[in-house]
Amino acid sequence: MAPKPPSADQVKQAVADLTDKTQSSQAWNSIFRPGSIFRKGYNDSPRNRSYVIMNSVLYHLHPVKVKRHAVKVSYTLCLGGLSFFLFILLTVTGIFLMFFYRPTAAAAYADMETLRSAVTFGLLVRNMHRWGAHLMVLSVFLHMARVFYHGAYKAPREFNWVIGVILLTLTLLLSFTGYLLPWDQLALWAVTVGTNMMGFTPVFGDNVRFVLLGGVEIGNDTLLRWYVLHVLMLPFVTVIMMAIHFWRVRKDGGISGPL
Amino acid sequence: MTEIPEHLLKRAQEARDRAAASAPADDAPAAAAGGAAEQTPEQAAAASKIPQHLLDRAKAARDKSAGTAVEAAVPAAAAAAAGGAVATAAPPQPTGPGGHTQRLLTVVKSGSIQDVKATPVDKVHVWPHLLVVEFVAALAVTAFTLIFSIFVNAPLLELADFNATPNPSKAPWYFLGLQELLTMFHPMVAGVTLPGFALILLILAPYIDKNPSNKPEKRKFAISIMTVHLMFWAVLTMIGSFFRGPGFNFVFPWEAGLFFEL
User: Which end of chain B has the lower number of beta carbons within 10 A, N or C?
Assistant: First the structure.
């Protein structure tokens, strides 16, 4: 004869016991810091609202409290945060694309076609990467305009504006280096036009062009060079600049005051 | 048993000697037992760090409660040290109008004697007020990108071919303003000098703009010049994107069609 199934109360009791046991175990308590809401559950209180921010490595980019006007969507339109979010989205989709792409003139275009036709979600992820990139250029640009029109670059935030302009330039460079990678007609000739322009730099024009192309004209070396710039070097520099940018936002007293 | 270090033994012996010396002879057992606990209040006061005027005040209160006459002679030095805030020795007498014990001498506005440096700022918790907004914004952008990507494919033209120059050849859209400038100026001016100059001006903006206000009505010049600047680039980019056809000649998109790829 089968044993009697446990009653609802017994199950509830067992779950509660297990929860208690887990939450008081050493492993659990070593993962979540003292005060973390995952230790004892979350009740809404000012103390727990602070703990949510303080005990999360990502959230503690934020202070525990911000000025009331800073959370008004109409003030910032979330443009800076969205630029950062798009950067994360582009990193995630970009890592996916890297699995299916070889930066050589012989293989790149074929890999793009394989990605579009044979890789699961390949087309979708590539689309998201492309449109996300354009969106990021747009949002960084609008963020800059917002900051200018609010006079938010004034003391003590002058230097953060400088970092911001560098980040805008880095965003454009990231987008531009990514432009070449599909190795289609659009990529080749857009980059030809772009690098020809840079070749007219006074005095060092030819050198600038040579360094950018890894030769006198676009080829295998250019593709490899721009690939490394696109997936490694520029994101690396951008992340460092963003870290300084966010740190300065907090150190300079949060986002600027109301108009 | 571990050996007690010599310096501890020495210290203990010194403490015992001190206790024996301070205690009276007839109180020897108590002194030997505890020492300081059996000290007279005066000795305790001398040993502790309690300021003299506080001890005096406590003593006055004790005397008052015992019904004895209060000794009015609080040491002047002690009173001065306490900034005149020491309780008066005499018990309060109802001497004011209407039998009040206190009089209003003057009203001093807080700003004149206190320098208020920090005004409290109206703040809210980041969780949930800010994080919720950020989360919704991130979700909306993800949804937009995802749905847009489902319906609109990113362009992929034919394999790159060095022998087939497309007509027109266009840079990425954010450089089309520059490419448009190329039709008007020497490439060195249009492609490098002007954008470089603009970039440096942009970086230096906070150091050039000395106006401390962030109110739009007080920074008309800065706002006008930036707006003209942005409009200039926006118009150039639009022309470069939509109004340039084969040979980069001026065309109307509704007549000649679009020559534009994202």
Answer: N
Given a contact cutoff of 8 angstroms between Cβ atoms, the answer to whether B211 and B217 are in contact is: no
- For B61, the enclosing helix (H) or strand (E) is helix B52-65
Predicted ipTM? 0.89
Any domain includes A178: yes
Contact B172 A176 (CB under 8 A): yes
The pair of structure tokens assigned to B76 is: 């002047």
- Structure tokens given for B136: 């919704």
Would an 8 Å CB–CB cutoff place B169 in contact with chain A? Answer: yes
B92-135 pLDDT, tens per residue?
Answer: 666 666 667 777 778 777 666 666 667 777 899 998 899 999 99
Residue B38: band (very low, low, confident or very high) from pLDDT cuts 50, 70, 90: very low
B126/A194 touch (CB, cutoff 8 Å), yes or no: no
Task: For chain B, give every domain's residue range.
Answer: 162-256
The boundaries of the domain holding residue A189 are 75-249
Return the CATH number at A224.
1.20.810.10
Q: Which fold has domain B162-256?
A: Helix Hairpins (1.10.287)
Inter-chain CB proximity A175 and B131 less than 8 Å: no
SS (H, E, C) B207-262: HHCCCCCCCHHHCHHHHHHHHHHHHHHHHHHHHHHHCECHHHCECCHHHHCCCCCC
Burial class (CB in 10 A: 0-12, 13-18, 19+), A118: exposed
For residue B29, whether the previous peptide bond is cis, meaning omega lies within 30 degrees of 0, is no
Measured between beta carbons, which residues in chain B are less than 8 angstroms from residue A62? Answer: 126, 130-131
Residue A56 within any structural domain of the chain: no
Which residue shows structure tokens 């949060």?
A254
Q: Which of A184, A195, A203, A255 is the best mutation test for B, with the most CBs of B within 10 A?
A: A184
Instruction: Report whether the peptide linkage leading into residue B172 is cis, meaning its omega lies within 30 degrees of zero.
Output: no
- Is A44 inside any structural domain? no
pLDDT digits (tens, 9 = 90+) for B153-194: 999 999 999 998 888 888 899 989 888 888 888 888 887 888
Q: Residue B199: list chain A partners with CB under 8 A.
A: 165, 169
How far, in Å, are A247, A253, B255 from residue B134 at the CA level? 18, 19, 44
- Tell me the two tokens of residue B156: 């992929």
Return the ∠ at Cα A89 (arms to A87 and A93), rounded to 5°: 120
Euclidean distance between CA atoms B142 and B149, whole angstroms: 10
Q: Looking at the complex, does the CB of residue B164 fall below 8 Å from at least one CB of chain A?
A: yes
Provide the number of structural domains found in chain A: 1
**Chain A nearest CA to B204, separation (Å):** 8
pTM passes above 0.80: no
Question: Are the C-beta atoms of A127 and B149 separated by less than 8 Å?
Answer: yes
